[in-house]
């Protein structure tokens, strides 16, 4: 355990100190006496409801930050910061929560709300992974184990591009999403193919843009896992793949597609054709969402009409997937809306597209 004192020797104090105002007092306040001033507070949107439910599902007092509140004339307290935490406590039947009560006028409450939410120190995915690993959380342990088995390291911090080295994996969010697949075996196989190839020391093969395409390819085409993947990676020439991906921009079908999609295309063609990576593949024709929708509508009814549809995938959800056109950001929004792992929603998209 490494413990660090609060030191400010290397910091410069402000030239002029502002009035800190009255110091807050901390006490347990009944939830019935807490109110939300909608003149400056955020509304509780659908996304906010999901945040509340997530806090409630993992509620622990050791992780509960006191609610910041200000007293009102009628004896109640206006929440300045912490309405999601307060709603989560109410959701699981808690009657009172700890509050840091600061006596400030209403006009200053809005300023405090703005200042608190503007000056937050955002926690990066790498810091979340580091804390989860120290706490022994399952997803972090599984992700770390899967990456380590391939001779790589899932990083808990970020360094500049010039300082990065081969076998260092910085794509923490992507690895977390893939960890549940075959208990991390896909991650280990995908990275082992790189570390066992002739490109093991080529930093470009460990960057997220290539890893994302590589991981998605092996997830969508699991039959490739039975091939000599290290030999397949050794045969790849990233410079040639980059040139082919860039050449796709000249075609109408790919002119507006992102660089990642073009790289994904040429990588898939090179791997699935079984041809050497030096052969220039032709870009597969894009199928418009409307065409996919028409094809799905034209499919014959299943032979057993009484068979109920899958509860996770009613017709409305498949229709919404078709409308995304396979775009990652739109699929990500649906995954958040439906409270599903994005990998599950992407897998369904590929099934609908194939149909």
Give an overview in words.
The chain has helices at residues 46-57, 83-91, 106-118, 125-135, 138-149, 172-178, 185-195, 208-220, 229-235, 238-247, 259-272, 289-298, 315-324, 328-338, 342-354, and strands at 25-30, 34-35, 67-71, 77-81, 96-101, 153-154, 168-169. The protein has 355 residues and is an alpha/beta fold. The protein folds into three domains: 25-118, Conserved hypothetical protein from pyrococcus furiosus pfu- 392566-001, ParB domain (Alpha-Beta Complex); 125-235, no CATH class; 289-300 and 309-354. The protein has a five-stranded mixed beta sheet with strand order 1-5-3-4-2. It is globular and about 75 Å long.
Topology of this structure?
Elements: E1 25-30, E2 34-35, H1 46-57, E3 67-71, E4 77-81, H2 83-91, E5 96-101, H3 106-118, H4 125-135, H5 138-149, E6 153-154, E7 168-169, H6 172-178, H7 185-195, H8 208-220, H9 229-235, H10 238-247, H11 259-272, H12 289-298, H13 315-324, H14 328-338, H15 342-354
Parallel strand pairs: 2-4, 3-5, 6-7
Antiparallel strand pairs: 1-5, 3-4
């Amino acid at each position: 355990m490494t413990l660090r004192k609060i030191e400010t020797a290397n910091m410069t104090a402000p030239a002029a100190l502002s009035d800190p105002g009255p110091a807050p007092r901390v006490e347990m306040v009944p939830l019935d006496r807490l109110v939300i001033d909608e003149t400056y507070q955020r509304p509780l949107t659908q996304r906010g409801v999901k945040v509340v439910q997530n806090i409630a599902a993992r509620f622990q007092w050791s992780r509960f930050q006191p609610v910041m509140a200000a007293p009102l004339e009628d004896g109640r307290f206006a929440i300045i910061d912490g309405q999601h935490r307060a709603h989560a406590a109410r959701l699981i039947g808690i009657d009172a929560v700890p509050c840091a009560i600061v006596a400030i006028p209403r006009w200053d409450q809005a300023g405090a709300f703005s200042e608190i939410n503007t000056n937050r120190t955002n926690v990066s995915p790498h810091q979340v992974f580091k804390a989860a690993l120290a706490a022994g959380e399952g997803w972090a342990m599984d992700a770390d184990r899967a990456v380590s088995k391939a001779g790589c390291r899932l990083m808990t911090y970020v360094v500049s591009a010039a300082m990065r080295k081969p076998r260092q994996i910085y794509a923490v969010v992507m690895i977390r999403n893939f960890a549940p697949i075959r208990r991390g075996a896909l991650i280990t196989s995908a990275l082992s193919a790189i570390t066992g190839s002739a490109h093991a020391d080529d930093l470009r093969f460990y960057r997220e843009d290539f890893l994302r395409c590589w991981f998605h390819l092996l997830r969508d085409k699991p039959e490739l896992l039975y091939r000599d993947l290290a030999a397949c990676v050794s045969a790849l020439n990233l410079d040639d793949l980059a040139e082919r991906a860039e050449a796709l921009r000249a075609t109408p079908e790919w002119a507006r597609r992102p660089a990642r999609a073009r790289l994904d295309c040429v990588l898939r063609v090179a791997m699935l054709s079984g041809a050497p990576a030096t052969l220039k593949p032709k870009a597969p024709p894009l199928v418009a969402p409307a065409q996919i929708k028409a094809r799905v509508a034209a499919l014959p009814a299943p032979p057993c009409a009484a068979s109920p549809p899958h509860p996770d995938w009613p017709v409305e959800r498949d229709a919404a997937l078709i409308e995304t056109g396979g775009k990652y950001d739109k699929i990500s929004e649906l995954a958040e809306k439906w409270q599903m792992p994005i990998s599950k929603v992407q897998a369904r998209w590929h099934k609908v597209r194939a149909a």
